[in-house]
Write a structure and sequence with these properties.
By secondary structure, this protein is mainly alpha-helical. It is about 65% helix and about 5% strand. The chain contains eleven helices and four strands, in the order ββαααββαααααααα. The longest helix is centred in the middle third of the chain and has 25 residues.
């Protein structure tokens, strides 16, 4: 993953580039999608007409229309006769769509995105940890312990630390035995990885606090203590919010 960089427009937005699209219509959809998410086309704004957009992107009308259809399906646009193509309100966007999440990383993650992500995590991950305490296998517990060991060995600001962090959280979701919880983790995995990079502990003290907090999750799961596992997971999520300044 490319290193995060700060947008030149504001220090509050972190840009984490993702992979480029391969087909023409996918690349056009990606570009327009990023422009919408970044606010260059605001909610309720009307997109330029077909003639202007085909000239801008250097594509045919069928390619442009396929791109628009893709964005309509993802909830970012609506098309109406005699009105044109209009940006929908943010509440209509499919935030569980892998492309929409990737475009957020490209457009730049702000505090609102991080807060929203933490809220869905708080709704799912503590319960997943509680279920994992009841259902985990020995193999799953071993994966979690290896992830914590890697977190201990890696510098807090390293990609290795973030990857170990991600591995632990995904394994907890898997160990819950609930396929819906695992699916949520899989869908938002890119956003989780970005969040972990941004909330990485900046010094030795924060590193030790973060590792100990994750260790408490694993030990509670090992002890089959569902309540303690849920509480430890909640604590980890709030600690991450605190470190990247999105709490409150």
């Amino acid at each position: 993953m490319s290193a995060p960089k700060t947008s030149p427009n504001t220090s509050q937005i972190i840009v984490i580039p993702t992979r480029r699209s391969h087909s023409n219509h996918a690349e056009v959809a990606r570009t327009i999608g990023i422009d919408i998410i970044a606010g260059r086309y605001g909610e309720g704004a009307k997109l330029p007409g077909d003639a202007e957009l085909t000239l801008l992107f250097g594509v045919s009308r069928p390619v442009l229309r396929e791109s628009v259809k893709t964005l309509v399906a993802k909830g970012l646009l609506s098309t109406k006769a005699r009105v044109g193509t209009v940006v929908r309100e943010r509440a209509a966007w499919n935030m569980f769509d892998a492309d929409v999440l990737a475009w957020h990383l490209d457009a730049g993650i702000d505090k609102r995105f991080l807060r929203d992500l933490s809220e869905i995590r708080l709704a799912v991950e503590p319960r997943a940890a509680a279920l994992a305490a009841e259902r985990r296998s020995a193999e799953q517990l071993a994966v979690m312990r290896r992830a914590v060991a890697q977190m201990k060995d890696e510098p807090g600001a390293s990609e290795g630390f973030a990857e170990a962090d991600l591995t632990l959280h995904v394994e907890v979701a898997t160990a819950s035995g609930n396929p819906f919880m695992r699916s949520v983790g899989a869908v938002i995995e890119a956003a989780l990885r970005a969040s972990f990079v941004l909330s990485a502990p900046a010094d030795a003290r924060e590193h030790d606090i973060a590792v100990a907090a994750h260790e408490r999750i694993v030990e509670a799961i090992a002890d089959a203590d569902a309540e303690a596992a849920a509480a430890a997971m909640t604590n980890v999520i709030f600690n991450g919010l605190r470190r990247h300044g999105a709490a409150g």
